[in-house]
Amino acid sequence: MVDFDKVAVKAVNIATVRERRKSMDSSQIEQYLDFLGQKLADMQIKTSIILLGGALMVTQIGNRKATQDIDVVIATNDRRTYQAVQQAIALVAKEKKLPPAWLNDDVTIVVDQIGKPKAPKHWKTFGNLTVYVPELEYILALKLFSGRPQDDRDIRAIAQRLSLQTKVQAWSIVNKYIPSTQLGFRNAYTSQAIDRCFPN
After folding, report:
1. 33 and 124 assigned to the same domain
2. Where are the alpha helices (DSSP H) in 96-166?
3. 159 Cβ partners below 8 Å, 6+ apart?
4. 98 and 70 Cβ atoms separated by less than 8 Å
5. What's the domain range around 23?
6. Is 87 exposed, middle or buried (0-12, 13-18, 19+ CB in 10 A)?
7. Interval 126-160: pLDDT, tens
8. What are phi and psi of 107, to 5 degrees?
């Protein structure tokens, strides 16, 4: 079961660190991903990631100008590949003087319990790194499920892109992607988010 309250506490704990970070705009996100792809090529490792969080909003929706880190799911079940990717991430951080968590997979704990995107699409390939993005309905469902007021801006931007205007439509998206066992845990938060973002 996903405990978003604990996730929120973790976010607060690292907030002071993030304040010292330099934000990344869309071009910088691509630049750093390209550096990562080059490092993976040097290590003769090929892998894929699924882009989420603020980096997705910056690069795919454009309602944010920048983000302070890149949230991803590393698409591998191979321990050695995963460790190699983490090593490459650390090398990029060191060489480009980025924070250690400039790219992180903390969101994986949520995705593992909620479920992965049903139809991720290829976005770009950077050397040995292939980047996928989830369908927007999936991102909307996750943000509604979390129910955090700070996500309202993103929710409205995605809803506009999908031409969704009503509470019924919003609940339809949530029910499509969020397992009922998980939804019961966050139902009140989800309901509040839908009420805030969908007046009809």
Report:
1. yes
2. 108-114, 136-146, 152-162
3. 140, 165, 170, 197, 198
4. no
5. 4-134
6. middle
7. 999 999 999 999 999 999 999 999 999 999 999 99
8. -65, -15
Residue 170 and residue 86 in one domain: no
Tokens of 197: 């973002």
Give the global pTM.
Answer: 0.85
- Same domain for 143 and 175: yes
Q: Are residues 150 and 118 in the same domain?
A: no
Looking at residue 113, what is its pLDDT? 85
Q: Which two tokens stand for residue 104?
A: 């992180």
What stretch of H or E contains 172? helix 167-177
Same domain, 58 and 145: no
Of 77, 74, 98, nearest to 86 by C-alpha is 74
- The overall average pLDDT reported for the chain is 90
Interatomic CA distance for residues 56 and 61, integer angstroms? 7
Question: Same structural domain for residues 29 and 44?
Answer: yes
